[in-house]
Description:
The protein has 167 residues and is of the alpha+beta class. It has helices at residues 3-12, 116-128, 153-165, and strands at residues 27-32, 35-41, 44-50, 64-70, 75-82, 93-97, 100-106, 110-112, 131-137, 143-149.
Amino acid sequence: MKALPLLLALLAAPALSAEAPDVSPKISLGVFDRWGAFADPAPRRCYAIAQPVQAGGASRWRPFASIASWPARGARNQLHIRLSRERDARARVTLSVGERRFALIVGSADAWSPDPRTDAAIVAAIRSGRSMSVESLSRSGQPFADVYALRGAATAIDAASLGCAAR
């Protein structure tokens, strides 16, 4: 339960973009070890989310990994990573779960799976993994990695999926 305050603080963290902050009420679907599951009513989305147990550096925002479903968009179990640092514009971002490696598409401090097939492979790897890391190079050229514990991730992903299916 000690992860709940961290997750709620994470959800209240300001976004990197110039968009207005999301002030819609969040519904807690449960906290499962280091992962939480939440739902937003408008726009309707449900997601599992966690902070890294080890971040690759200090930043102006809180890094996170999330797996989200957006029913109105027909999207299910989409990966979104907020990196702990802004990355070098030429640097790749790689997600590692056990022996599996996934190349992600990137913004300056965010990364996503390139397609639904890769999202499904990542979620399958998360379900059987113990930890995952996201690696890249910072704007200064230094390598960094954000490391996530996966205990509770599968249950949080399931709770988020059920949260959107039940509504």
